[in-house]
């Protein structure tokens, strides 16, 4: 297609170009009818284990390390902060309450993440909710409209019934015109979905003459939930991929919450699995520089902020794209289009607000789409999460989005604006007419100036593969090529694909041999 390159051209030292990579089999072209299987993990290696240093202990870095260790290699994961998780990190306050980087929801259409939970033996930590999507009613404060997916029907019939059964948000004419607009995506399949990256979602709706009210009623909320931005920014491909999975998989849109804080309930078991297989995880270890060999572009070592230097057989960057661009050696950017093209990618700002109240606000045990101009999704975590349970008092976790105009504002300003929005969401508890006034006990605001990569239109050509032009250097992260885009599933899958890329390089004998007098560090297994 016009907006996704065929093999990428990479500039060589002499200024010539050579072909480097093709689309990955788990890119958007992998979309198909029915549930998608997880990507296979790397097979155990027939070669002596290689030492691999991985920068970043988010889901991408940890999953990469797990699969490398289980294939017989020796990974060392370095995390700059004192907590594991990256974009799913969380912290405990003086009262023992957790506050998180985001409101993390797991979907039935996350095959690699769900497989990871099974491999770790922690499936019971996912608290599955009833198969519904619940929206606040804009014109009726305090009321909700539901899309209920009947469990006795297969996909896509359960999704069709859910849409047709909701008569409060869209008229029959709007539903029919939207369905007609989706026909090309259904008939033409993945190639069409890729081509739609040239449009924003709003442009796509207008192209198909779908009423603007469909955007206003449903897709402003959905776009903000998918990437924290509005439909006039988000790529149409992103929304179409989500719709494809939600409609093609019976439980694709079914949601689960983790039963506690991600660092304890997900990342700790991952770190334990890595260590049990011979790898290691170290926190408080920031990579300050990627040091190259003098006579070629391969990595010689990593220099840490502490001054420590680490040498390995292979290196993986699993840090966010904005962090990697700061670490990227200037020689790579100058000599390889593969790296220079990443300048088009950047993270989106995200604000997560936590509010503790003196009373119960709702008994709804589910994710809620606020349809607020300032907020995206929210949940009463005292209902949805066993680890945060409180039968008497609510703790709301709300995503403030889009956040670009608020990321530099004070926490007090953000909380004040959020409390004003609660007058519409919970009029019985907030505002002049409230009959059962609730008092705010405390709050935490977590700002991430650059979070998951911003999925605006036309960016698919600039997303790199996990293998790079540098023989001993690899990439992981949701911004790399994989079909689940900017999500936890995308991060987990990218880590697995990066592990596979390293293993493939080992099997082919592609990793550079150590120079004379240079060996990989004899012991990378330093514990946290």
UniProtKB/TrEMBL annotation:
GO terms for cellular component: membrane
Location relative to the cell: Membrane; Plastid, Chromoplast
Residues binding FAD: 287
GO molecular function: phytoene dehydrogenase activity
Pathway(s) the chain acts in: Carotenoid biosynthesis; lycopene biosynthesis
Keywords of this entry: Carotenoid biosynthesis, Chromoplast, FAD, Flavoprotein, Membrane, Oxidoreductase, Plastid
Keyword Oxidoreductase: yes
Ranges where the Amine oxidase domain occurs: 59-502
EC number: 1.4.3.-
Protein name (Swiss-Prot/TrEMBL): Amine oxidase
Organism: Cyanidium caldarium
Lineage: Eukaryota, Rhodophyta, Bangiophyceae, Cyanidiales, Cyanidiaceae
